[in-house]
Amino acid sequence: MKSTYNLRERINHKCIKKCNPEKRKETTNNDICKVTKSELDRLPIRCVGNWAYQKIYRLNQYFGIFSNAMKNKWRGLNYIELCSGPGRCILRKTGEEIDGTSLSILRHPSFNFIKKAIFIDKDETIIKILNKRIKNLSINNAYGVIGNYNDIDILENIFSDLEKDFLNLIFIDPTDCSVPFETIKFIKSYFKYVDFVMNFPYGTDLIRNLHGAIQNITWPSRVKYLKFLGSNDFFERKEVKNLAVLPNKQQLVLEFFIEYIKNLKSIGLKYCESEQVKNYYMLLFASGHSKGLELWKKSQSINPDEQREIVFDD
Questions:
Q1: Cβ(158)–Cβ(68) under 8 Å?
Q2: What gap in Å lies between CA 63 and CA 80, rounded to an integer?
Q3: 24 and 47 Cβ atoms separated by less than 8 Å
Q4: Looking at residues 208-231, what average pLDDT do you find?
Q5: CA torsion angle 176 144 288 296 (round to 10)
Q6: Rounded Cα distance, 124 and 262, in Å
Q7: Following DSSP, what letter does each residue of the chain receive, concatenated?
Q8: What is the mean pLDDT of residues 260-281?
Q9: pLDDT value at position 44?
Q10: What predicted TM-score, i.e. pTM, was given to this entire model?
Q11: Residue 109 and residue 113: Cα distance in Å, rounded?
């Protein structure tokens, strides 16, 4: 049996549309639009690319299959999101606003199977907006909290509100390669049972800066990439340096990605697979159990292109 629901799409008539990067510096603050608010709830919205729909679609497809398959096999399920955003976003090309990842999960038919959901963002304003939206949905087992993924002590304090022996689904959604590998390692060790879905921004951050970071030890992104990757010797390898001087940037980024997967497997996340979202980033799935990968593959069998409804298997 299949059930559907929409992302509460609305055309925002005050959206300027098609803002280029320079224009967005004037019209947004931390990607929150300063020109208009949501026509649905009059709260601030985040300006995003049209490809955001694919990310939301793919995450929700997995969430539905994961929660339905696991609901009776564990004492409880938790959902945790890092870099949550304000819950509602606007597609800058079309001016259409939709629920973001956090609200789409909260409104998912299978959210009833979740014991607790925590949404983490480092921006206090964003968390306040998101909590207002959660309150509007009258949901009592979810909340947003201020937290920095670079501070493991803060994360540990946030996670202390969750049962450790539950099965946990973690969605990590930064706009760049700034989540340190040590954070992933900590989360994996803190929660014995955990699946990850991560935004891997290969086509934005990495394609622009990785070559320079390898060739120049003073490149601004170099330290960030080393912390993200978790391999201190990667930038010193001869084969990597040779790739860094070639005009084709794709192969170097691929090697970086392969190294990241290898490091995930070294901490017990042996089952990994990714889905490309346009040419900008990949949604990377990582789990310590083959069943998680089986469910991920099943959930990704329906392509989001041209679809305007999210479909869930009950």
A1: no
A2: 12
A3: yes
A4: 93
A5: -80
A6: 35
A7: -EEEE----EE-TT---S--HHHHHHHEETTEESS---TTTS---EEE-TTHHHHHHHHHHHHHHHHHHHTTTSS-EEEEEES--SSEEEETTTTEEEE-HHHHHHTSGGGGG-SEEEEEES-HHHHHHHHHHHHHTT-SSEEEEE--TT-HHHHHHHHTTS-TTSEEEEEE--SSS-S-HHHHHHHHHHSSSEEEEEEE-IIIIIHHHHHHHHH-TT-TTHHHHHHHH--TTGGG-HHHHHHHTSS--HHHHHHHHHHHHHHHHHTT--EEEEEEETTTEEEEEEESSHHHHHHHHHHTTS--TT--SEEEE-
A8: 92
A9: 96
A10: 0.93
A11: 9
Q: What tokens appear for 209 in the block?
A: 């800066």
Which stretch of 36-45, 91-100, 150-159, 297-306 has the lowest confidence by average pLDDT? 297-306
Residue 247 has which token pair? 């005009």
Question: Three-class SS of residue 115?
Answer: coil
To 10 degrees, the CA torsion angle through 292, 293, 299, 300?
A: 150
Whole-number Å distance between alpha carbons of 280 and 16:
23
Q: Which one, of 6, 150, 139, 7, lies nearest residue 79 by Cα?
A: 139
pLDDT at position 114 over 70: yes
| Tokens encoding 94 | 């079309």
pLDDT for 19: 87
Res. 311 pLDDT band, cuts 50 70 90: very low
CA–CA gap between residue 47 and residue 254 (Å, rounded)? 29
pLDDT band at 5 (very low <50, low <70, confident <90, very high): low
For the chain, counts of helices (H) and of strands (E): 11, 15
Residue 255 burial (10 A CB sphere; 0-12, 13-18, 19+):
middle
Q: Which domains does the chain have, with CATH numbers?
A: 2-313 (3.40.50.150)
Single-letter amino acid code for the residue at 267: I
46 touches 268 (CB < 8 A): no
Q: Which helix (H) or strand (E) holds 298?
A: helix 290-299
